[in-house]
Amino acid sequence: MELPIKRPDRIIPDYSLTGDVLSFSRCQRSYRYYNGSSLPPSRPVQLWYGEFLHGMMERTYRLWQENQSLPFPLHCTIPEEGERPDEPVGLPALDLRVIGWPIEQALAHQGKFARSSDARISAYERAEAVINQLGPHLFPLVDVAERKVIGTRPLLPGQNSNVERATRYILEGIIDVLGHTQLDDQPEGNPLKAAIVATQPDLNGEYEIIIDYKGSRRPPVDTDERSDWQLGEWQVQTYAWLRSQQPEARPVAAGILVYIGELAPGTNELSSLKREMRRGRTDVVPANGTPDYYQINAWEPGRQVNLSGDFKMRRAIRIIPVTQASMQAATAAIDRVVRAIEDRVVDERTSNHIRQTWPADSQDEATCVACDFRVSCERYNSRPWPQSGQ
Ligand code: SF4
Q1: CA–CA dist 51, 59 (Å, integer)
Q2: Which residues line ligand 1 (CB under 6 A)?
Q3: What are phi and psi of 193, to 5 degrees?
Q4: What is the reported pLDDT for 39?
Q5: What SS3 class is residue 165?
Q6: 85: CA distance to ligand 1 center in Å?
Q7: Secondary structure of 335-369 in the HEC alphabet?
Q8: What's the pLDDT tens digit per position in 351-385?
Q9: Most buried residue among 143, 202, 368, 375 by CB atoms closer than 10 A?
């Protein structure tokens, strides 16, 4: 007699948009090691960097909200090289080091630390740049801060329904929402309002704009499904869909991604920008003949540049129009990624072999350099690299 195969217990897997879907898209192997293992990563540095910057924006926004103003620019006592991340003493309450200290502590309690002293310094420099350059324009626009958005979606069918562990999955994220009333009240000179109006000139009635921050630079324009350009678009569209599931939500008209790295560009940002301008791979470039144009073209590593605030802001702000069709396309893409993760979970259960099941398939050198598992990674050890942005 043939016995039926026991069906696995049904659960509803919980997927975070950034922690799971985007991480898996960047590299399946590192995703598995970081998120699928019961062991926490030894240095979850990418998490630290992004969460630190989000935390700085949120805490500073709360302070602005309590007082309805802040004395911008806020000073930041940048940590010195090699300095231990101890509690800062003797600094004014509004120094960004003082604002940042509880965030560093909270992250440390979760086992999250900066990769190096340089990474910590860079995080404070970028926090200073985004808070002082964007904060005065952004904070008055915020309607809802740090709102958790959550929804369930059907899991695409796999090849063998007997081994499926779920028919639906939960998707969640955290967003800030900008309101139409707050936008209407702002002067035309507000760079966020100007960028929204330039891409969405017909906006009227009641609507919302959602916003998210990336610690990185603006990625090159790319149609590859796994490129940072495309993943950023999917993320915003999916946040918009999740927001639309909440009863109090108004229609989401657009999403904004803020690339914080553009506000304080360093050697990596400038060399990538120069290369992408030469190859026509980036969408925001300085006008020919302007000081920004000459500075970038003449830039060499080690040379200082003084790019205009307007150009840096235009590079930092990416507006992504949201429609029903665009949300549908993005969520369908996210469904396919979740299906692929579920397939790997089933494959691993069958093969009992992590390395064979989860390919090391990062396309980005920076992701690999920050990866804890690079020493034993066949891809990392088979340079030269496929350069991102080429
Ligand atoms: S080194 Fe790169 S390719 Fe290898 S596991 Fe880490 S992120 Fe993936």
Answers
A1: 12
A2: 27, 29-30, 360, 362, 367-368, 371, 373-374, 377, 379-380
A3: -65, -45
A4: 46
A5: coil
A6: 28
A7: HHHHHHHHHHHHHHHHHCCHHHHCCCCCCCHHHHH
A8: 889 999 999 999 888 888 888 899 999 999 987 76
A9: 368
